[in-house]
Structure formats: C-alpha cells, structure tokens
Amino acid sequence: MSIGEMIERLGALVLDSIVRLGAFVLFLLNSVIYVFLPPFKPRLWVRQTRIIGADSLFLIILIGGFTGMVLGLQGYNTLRRFGSDGALGTVVALVLVRELGPVLAAIMITARAGSAMAAELGSMQSTEQIDALTVMAINPIQYLVSPRMLAGVISFPLLTAIFDVVGIYGGYMVGVGLMGAPSGAYFNGIAANMSGHDVMTGLYKSLVFGVIVMWVCCYKGYHAERMATGVSRATTEAVVLSSVLILAFDYFLTSILL
Amino acid sequence: MSETQTNGRDGNTQSVRDSAGAGNAIEVRDLKRRFGRQQVLDGVTLDFPSGKITTIVGPSGSGKTVLLKHLNLLLRPDSGKIVIDGVEVTNLGARGLDEVREKFGMLFQAGALFDSMSVFDNVAFPLVEKSKLTRDEIADRVHETLKAVGLEGMEAKFPSQMSGGMQKRAALARALVRRPKILMLDEPTTGLDPTRTGAIHDLIRRTQENFHLTAVMVSHDVPAVFQVSDRVAFLHNGLTRLNGTVAEVMAADDDVFKRFLAGKASGEENETALAG
User: Fold this and answer.
1) Is A127 part of the contact surface with chain B (CB cutoff 8 Å)?
2) Which residue of A110, A119, B3, B145 is 20 to 30 Å from A73, comparing CA positions?
3) pLDDT in tens, A217-250
C-alpha cells in the first residue's frame, strides 16, 4: 500500500468516525425532542415504564439487598479496627446513595432492560419492521425510541432510590443484626450526616445514567446490521458501551458534584 | 401510447416516451445512487402507469430493491427526479414525504409484521395510528380487508403461528387497509412453494382489480410473474434496459434479457450474482 493510499484510508476512517459520532448525537437530540412533539402516545410511555421500571423492581431489590449486606459486613469489619463501628450506618448510606446505588442500579437495568431493548429494536431493524413504520408515515424514532427515553428518565431515579433504601436496610440487617454494631447509632448517624446534597447527587447521576443507557441501547439496536450476527453484536455493544459510559460519567459527575 | 424503451450503454438508441405526467402514477427520471464505490443506479428512467401492475425484474445486484426503496421514499437519490401522483418528491422535507407516503401501501419481502401484535392489531395498526376512524369502523375495515385476502377468522393469530404464505397475506392486508392508491411489493413470493406462489400472484391481481390500484412489484419469479403483470421493466447494471408491456418485452431482441430468462449469465454477471 502506498503512502497516498494509507493517508486516504486514514482520512476516510476519520471522516467516517465523525459522521458516526454526529449520527449518534443527532439520534439523542431527535429522541428527546420528539418526546415533546405530537402525536402523544401515553400508552406507549406507560408500557415502556412498566417494562424498564416495574419489571426491574425485583432485580433491583435483590441486588440492592445483597449490596447493602456486603457493605454492612465489610464496613463493620473495617470500622471496628478503628473503634468507629458506630459510623457504620453513615458509611453504608453515603456509599450507597452517592455511588453504588446509582451505578449498580444502572448497570443492572442495562443488563436486563437495556440488552432486551437493543435486541428488540435490532430484530425489528433486521426484519424491516422499522422500514414498515416509515412507509406508513409513522416516525420510528418518535414511536419506538422517545417512549423508551422518557421511561428511562422516570424509572432510573425511582429504581435507584429503592436500591438505596433496600441496601441501607440490608446493611442494618448484617451490620447490626448479625455483627452487633450499635443499633441506635446506625440510623442516627444517617440522619446526622446525610444531607439533601448527597441524595440529589445520587439522583442526578441516576438521571444521567438513564439517558445514557436508553440512548446507547436504542441507538445500537436501531442501527443493527441486517445479518445473522447483527442483533447479537448490537446487543453486546449496547451493554458494554453503556457500562463503560456509566462508569466514565460517574467519575465526571462525582468530580463536579463533590 | 405504448412502446418499448431501451436504455443501455452499448450504443442502442435511447427512446424515452414523453409522458407529460399523463396516466402515470410514478415517473422516474435519470435516477442515480451510489453506495460507497458501487454505482447501483446509474440513470434509471421509468414510468409506472396508473392502474397497472408493473414488475421490475433483473439479475441480483441490478438495483431492483434499491429502486423500489427510492419509490417508497426510504432512500434519497444522489441525482435525478421522482414524481409521484404529480408531485415531485425528490427534495421534499419530512412532512412532505409523510403526506406522499399516505398514498402508499407496501408489502415487504418477509412481511415485516409486528411480532408482538396479533393479525388484527397488525392490520389495524395504520388505521389506529393515522386515521380518525372509530374503533368499530376500524374493526369493520380490518375484517373486510382480511376477508379480501382470504384470512377471515385469523384475527387472533400471531405471526409466529402462521405459515409464510399466511404471513404474506396478512402483510398484504395491512398494506391495503388504508385503501392506498399505489401498492408496492418487494419480492412477494420469495420463499414460497409454487402452489402458494400462484395463489399470491392471483391474490395480487384480484386485489389490484378490486381496489383499482397501481402496483409496483419487484420479483425474481421469472417468467411466472409475467402472467400477473401488465408491464415489465428489466434492470441491468443500474439502468432500464427494457420497459414495456409483457408481450413487447418478451418479443424484444435483447441478448442480455434472453440470457437472464434462460438463467444463463456472462462471467461478469456470474461474479455479480455470486457476490449477491
């Protein structure tokens, strides 16, 4: 390959990447804008909120419970070395509310609902169902993606809050009930040391994660290649990219909100 | 007036009928479209007369489905002009395109039925989303359309519970339920056995007559599809090589078309066919 051809290929790669990034961002803008434009379809919003939110509830409770329990165990063992086991409630609550709640809840919902969403849209793309919507003069982004975006924005903070509450009680069960940390100090410490800013930090993160997960999973499914491996590749990429962006944005948001 | 048009690279005289929009549901002029380095459509010029079934045939890779996707506005050309029902659509915005799409019904190759909906909900979908009909009126229209395609009593079935032929008929019903002026069919008999193929062809003809439609069909089912067609357009290397009535096209002295009918291809055509 000559140098000219190498430069041409590199140029084409750069241009292609810019075009793809632009399409990715435009997809988000369109899906958000169409939430506010008629025709409004409340039944679609409700359906997606049920699928993404309500149907994830059991998983969130399960993971939240176990997360809180392991925090209670590890937290007690560490704090006891410094004679600070009375601070267990504060530590469990702050870690959950500020960090683990939003991040783990988002990752769990990605694994469950996000992957299913990418697969469903990918399957629709490969069987021309999305083209069928377009030919029927129905905007496929408004019909398929915008309800999911709205459902994500509604569901993620609520599920994160439930994760936090269940996790705090999980920490209480293990730390106080099993390990013997002082009972009164657990919740008194939370009340004394947790501020509204801590709670809002967690909720802001969950909102951002909700948008990211819905955006990435819908985009990957909507643009799945029409071939046998297209849907599986789209689903895998959706989950991986969502997880990476959740963790990356967690750092950026933490640095801004601290 | 009806005449055979030839439009080729080998020096044949190009004779394009001046339709002036009279009697044509769709007109295509010098349509070009490239994907990467491949020039798929290289100046297609074609008319689709109102109230007729025009079938687009050609070897794999000749641009048939790409042309159909331009006609149903899923793709935009690089250059050229498309006029649908007297409206030039080539540079329309999203709202204008949607208004034009109201005139279409489309049968996709695999049906494109919505998996999570029953046959009734699939067929009712365009009416529920786009019409102002009442629920009872929608139900009546759906039942009437399903009866027309021979699927009466199948309303509660889901696509996964039906054979390929039944899915095609349900998809046809969905395409017809809004009583479109133009019906587009992308390889409606692909994957079906000869008996079902004949049944679908009969259904297309009866539907076109009963609903007074203009139909544009892409098909590989040559020469069987000629029995249901009024006109045939033969695409080759991104150009309209032949266009006319079935009799005119079949009588045309064109080696490429004769080889295509006989299933014999040149070395280059074989490579294109194998490349898909």
Assistant:
1) yes
2) A110
3) 999 999 999 887 999 999 999 999 999 999 999 9
Question: Strand B79-84 to strand B231-236: parallel, antiparallel, or no bridges (unpaired)?
Answer: unpaired
User: Of B74, B112, B126, which is closest to A127 when you measure between CB atoms?
Assistant: B112
- What pairs with residue B34 in β-bridges? B39
Distance, in Å, from the CA atom of A72 to the CA atom of A88, rounded to the nearest integer, reads: 7
At B270 the pLDDT is: 52
- What confidence score (pLDDT) does residue B20 get? 36
Helix, strand, or coil (residue B87): strand
Task: Supply the ipTM of this predicted assembly.
Answer: 0.85
Copy the structure tokens of residue A10.
């590199």
Q: Residue A135 and residue B104: Cβ atoms within 8 Å? A: yes
> Lowest mean pLDDT: which of A34-43, B8-17, B215-224?
B8-17
Q: Where are the domains of chain A?
A: 42-257
CB contact under 8 A, A136 and B110: no
Distance of alpha carbon B94 from alpha carbon B83, whole angstroms:
16
Do residue A131 and residue B74 have CB atoms under 8 angstroms apart?
A: yes
Q: Where are the domains of chain B?
A: 5-103+180-275
Q: Which of 1.10.8.60, 1.10.287.500, 3.40.50.300, 3.30.565.10 would CATH assign to domain B5-103+180-275?
A: 3.40.50.300
B69, B108, B182, best to mutate vs chain A, most A CBs in 10 Å: B108
- Span A100-124, average pLDDT: 96
For A129, which residue in chain B has the nearest alpha carbon? B112
